[in-house]
Amino acid sequence: MRLRSVVLLVALLLASGWCLGQSTVILQNPSDAPVGSFGAWPDHGLPRPMTTAQTVPPANQAAPSPAAATRLSLIDAEAIALKNNPQVSVARLNALASQQVTRQVRSALWPTASVDLTGVDAHQDSRIAAGALNNPIIYERAAAGTQVRQLITDFGHTTNLVASARLGAQAQDQNAVATKEQILLAVAQSFYAALQSEAVLQVAEQTVASRQLVADQVGALARSKLKSDLDLSFANVNLAQAKLLLLDAQNNDKAALAALSAVLGYPTLQDIVLVDDTSPPSVPPAAVEPLIAEAFRARPELLALDYQYRSEQKLKTAARDQWFPTISALGVVGDTPVRNEHLSSWFGAVGVNVEIPVFNGFLFNAREHEADLRAQAVNQQLLDLRNRIARDVRTSWLDANTAYERLSVSRQLLDQANLALDLAKTRYDLGLGSIVELSQAQLQQTQAEIANAQAGYGYRLALTVLRYQTAQL
After folding, report:
1. CATH for 74-119+136-141+153-324+361-469?
2. Alpha carbon of residue 472 to chain centroid
3. What is the tens place of the pLDDT at every residue in 405-463?
4. CA-CA distance, 470 to 85, in Å (whole number)?
5. pTM above 0.90, yes or no
6. For labelling alongside 46, which of 57, 95, 147, 447 has CA 20 to 30 A away?
């Protein structure tokens, strides 16, 4: 009996498990079943158990594909950087803020108007007896009035301040242009550095593959006693050097992409596929003097300092004009609905005020002298910047010409290195050359490929720097 009970219990458990499995497959959406029915989960605020339909996707449903990498050319990178890089926004906002300074200063030329509401409860026949030379009487009153003040002339003081502020705003505009060109240069530097690191990575991968093949061949010959263990050791050393080169190239490639992502305004590393420009490189300019003249004419840093110098000159003139009188017109009108019997029901007056400065502790003299010294300092900065721009343009022109000459030299070096490697490989296979000769040829060929890749992108970057120095970006 006990054995029969055990068998029946096991059969019931198996049948219930089979039924639960069948119900799980049938009920693709358990929430469609009525509450309390088999396979449904009553809603008591507890989480529902996950079913097979929820955890396993249907067989005909395709797995989500990874996001495709973004193809990026240099023009696309420049547009993204100008849109996303915070430094461009900072420069533009500072330029806009400087325009508001001009409006602030120019407001002194416009009339000012204010409305006053006054209510006074005074002791009868009281006067202000302390704190002033006069002692006006105080009347009970409640009044409202408007005051208007208009500057007639201050003999150029305010207009010179407005001109100084406007020139300062123009200087900020040029600083914004300079920031934009600096960002464009940084984009080009990062873009070509990424392309160069990518090219070096390809060279490293090809080097590892070719040296792995040589190491495998030498290893097979060494096992057959056709080559010595010394040859195998040299081949393995060359392979290890190629793997180290590959590790460095992989690290440099990721670092270059990180730098490019940062200058584009992204906080994280972007999946980018760089699109290289396959057009042939142009010849660098033949003469440098026209380039220096163009830089003096168009460099935004020079224009910004020139505007700043002129702004300081206007500020100096405005400080001198503070010694002149200031003539203003005044007007006031109002109503006194609640008043003492001695007061009129309304009041009004107009007048002209002339303020003549006599002595203020040499304040105006110090301001004029300060503005003059600042103008002289800006003028010296302008001269220094012109000297540095002339030097930078000349240096960039020399670098561009040297980089252009390196293109043909590096190509010839690569051709000769490839030929030397082929000859060394043939001699080694025929037993006429040593492994040292083959290793040296492999090393020279790898260095020549890297130099050739660096020469192409180095020349493009040199041309970009030259265009930046002459304000042609």
Report:
1. 1.20.1600.10
2. 20
3. 999 999 999 999 999 999 988 888 888 888 888 888 988 999 999 999 899 999 999 99
4. 23
5. no
6. 57
